[in-house]
Amino acid sequence: MKRFLFIILASSLIAGGCGKTQEAKKEPEPEKSVEADAAKEPQKEAWWEREHEVYEPADLPRELTEDEKDLMKKPGEFSGDQYDEQAAIEKLKELPDNLTAEQYADAILKLTAEDYHEDVQELIKFDPTIESTGSRPDEEIEEPTVNGVHYAILLDASGSMNAQNKGGTRMEEAKSAIMSFIDVLPKDSTVSLRVYGHEGTGSDADKERSCASTETLYNGANEAGKVKAALDQVQPAGWTPIGKAIAETRNDIPEDAGSAIVYVVSDGIETCEGDPVKEAQKLAAEGIEPIINIIGFQVDNEAQQLLQEVAKAGNGEFTLANSKQDVEKYWKEEYQRLMDAWENWRNEGLKEVQAKQQELLKKADSLGQAVMKKSDLEFKHAEALQIALSKEGIQEDYDITSKVWSLLYDRQQMAWNYGYKTSTAAWQDAYEGGNKVWQEIYHEGNNKWQEYYHKQ
């Protein structure tokens, strides 16, 4: 009996001991999965899957077309002089064999695409405008032909103008010459006639009155009849207040005059203590910058010197005249000067326009050629890699590789045609624009030359 109990007890102890051992033993940790860890890390995008980087041009005059957007892609790793066929093929060997033809073509372009962006931007910004920078003679020598030109004539009516000359008195010849001048002035110009020294006499007793006398007898449109009627009133009388006449002629020039030319007809020097040089300087400093030309009518050496100084101060010229014929000769010389100036302006303008036109034509052609040459080079490199697809066992499906070639060829044709058509249009615009400006300058110069030729 006792033995039986011992056996049972021992068995229980053994059973109890086994249970504790199992409780103390740790459960083995599950093995980590390599695939699971890889899934947690972000997958690096393969080079052929990345989006093309593109240039973002600024300050363009218009939106880009779809073709232009395509040509704004940044160049491939093996573009231009960087092309290394074997290295490029090694890159292609990284491609999976389940890509579509479009994906293969895109991958090849990621390696071989040329850089078109600067040429495309220049073609978009191409400005065919051609302008001549030469100043027209009307600005250069103060003889504009537009509305707003004013001719101010100052006539000396001092007593000495009553002296006899070959064709009558000095006054009579001066009046005749002025009328000859009026007849050939531009019809849209305005004219003023101011006389000075026309009151009183040449006596000392009348000096104050005579020196204060200067009067505008006519100011208005270029109407010969009205100017003649005003001239008919003038009779030689007193002293010679040239300075006062020049000072007050600013009142004769319309406020809206674009320019003015002042002609002083005198047979002597200032005799009224005025300062014609100072007054000429003041007048020349006005906003319209008038020119003061002086016609000295039978003046002596002293008077010549003074009148030359007055003309110089007024940015004009002094001309000595001894008769009506001399005065008329002066006007003819003025017109000849204008004829020469317009002829020179025309010739210089034509030369300038032609040079600018050639420069633009060359630029348009150069830009187009650059795009076309790059498209040819790109296709040459891309086609070599397309051939390598099957040759190197990268992709042996004929239908796919054939379509890849077509896609690359279409890209080449798009780029080539863009360069050709866009540059041709720019070239044509520059050619036609240059011809138009050339014709305008040619006809304007010729017409102005003819105008002054007939006025002679």
Structure description:
- With 456 residues, the chain is of the alpha/beta class.
- Helix content is 55%, strand content 10%.
- It contains 15 helices and 8 strands.
- It has a 6-stranded mixed beta sheet, sandwiched between helices.
- Helix 6 (117-125) packs antiparallel against helix 14 and helix 14 packs antiparallel against helix 15.
- Mean pLDDT is 83; it is low at 1-26, 32-36 and 139-147.
Keyphrases for this structure?
10% strand, 15 helices, disordered N terminus, 6-stranded mixed beta sheet, two-stranded antiparallel ribbon, alpha/beta, 456 residues, 8 strands, 55% helix
Layout of secondary structure:
Layout: H1 2-24, H2 34-40, H3 66-71, H4 85-92, H5 101-112, H6 117-125, H7 137-140, E1 149-156, E2 164-165, E3 168-169, H8 170-183, E4 190-196, H9 207-211, E5 214-221, H10 224-231, H11 242-248, E6 259-266, H12 276-284, E7 291-297, H13 301-313, E8 318-321, H14 324-391, H15 398-455
Parallel strand pairs: 1-4, 1-6, 6-7, 7-8
Antiparallel strand pairs: 2-3, 4-5
Helix pairs in contact: 4-14, 5-14, 5-15, 6-14, 8-10, 8-14, 11-12, 12-13, 14-15
What structural class should be given to the helix and strand makeup? alpha/beta
Compute the separation of the termini in Å.
166 Å
Q: Widest sheet: strand order? A: 5-4-1-6-7-8
> Beta fraction of the residues?
5-15%
Largest sheet, in brief, is: 6 strands, mixed
Mean pLDDT: 83
- The total count of helices amounts to 15
Counting DSSP E segments of at least 2 residues, the number of strands comes to 8
- What percent of the residues sit in helical stretches (DSSP H or I)? 55-70%
Radius of gyration: 48 Å
Large-scale geometry: rod-shaped
Low-pLDDT regions? 1-26, 32-36, 139-147
Order of helices and strands: HHHHHHHEEEHEHEHHEHEHEHH
